[in-house]
Amino acid sequence: MKWIWAALVAALLAGLCVFALTGCGGGGKEERQVPFEARYVRTNGYDANATYPQTTFICSRASLDAYLTAAGATYDTTELVDLASFYDDAWFEEHMLLVVVLEERSGSIWHEVTAVHEFPGHSIDISRYEPPVLTMDMAQWHIVVELPAGSFQEGDGIQEVFTDWEAIDQKL
User: Fold this and answer.
1) Residue (of 116, 109, 123) closest to 156 by Cα position
2) Same domain, yes or no, for 42 and 26?
């Protein structure tokens, strides 16, 4: 009789393990992260009507040129234009860009993209690093995220998820 109870408990535990490992109840969809490379360019400027963050998908060299022309009216895009010289028509055949524009109350605050998610939802995780002592200058940043072509469509929305990183001394 004891062996029946032991077998029943073992079967129940095995079933629970299978249930937990197969992700039942999640609709069969697993989180999907998109591979990426991120570049950070300080592009100071000022637009009293701007709201931040701003996100833009760029899928062609022509779209990138149009973006740079428009951004140049507000921001110092010198370094951004230098970076953009790398992205030609051949590059856009296999890649796309996600541009995130941020404004910070201090130039001492910096960022790191930690993940880009295709599912669940479209989102980008950005860690925000703020040192204990700040400079007294506003700063605008263009974060240029390189993604595989087709990761997102130009009309897709993307949610920015910011995480403040507390232990700044450990990062430096």
Assistant:
1) 123
2) no
Residue 136's closest CA among 105, 168, 103?
Answer: 105
pLDDT bin (cut points 50, 70, 90) of residue 154 is: low
What is the percent of the chain where pLDDT is above 90? Answer: 56
Structure token digits, residue 70: 């428009």
DSSP 3-state of 67: helix
- Residue ranges making up the domain that contains 24: 1-30
Apex 160 CA angle, 142 and 29, nearest 5: 130
C-alpha span between 172 and 58 (Å, rounded) = 32
Whole-model pTM: value is: 0.76
Distance CA 139, CA 39 (A): 16
Which has the higher per-residue pLDDT, 122 or 171? 122
Place 30 in a pLDDT band, splitting at 50, 70 and 90.
Answer: confident
pLDDT greater than 60 at residue 42: yes
Residues 65 and 45 in one domain: yes
Q: How many angstroms separate the Cα of 110 from the Cα of each of 4, 91, 124, 164, 166?
A: 61, 28, 16, 10, 13
Assigned token pair, 69 = 């022309």
Q: How many CB atoms lie within 10 A of CB 166?
A: 9
Clarify whether residues 75 and 6 are in a common domain.
no
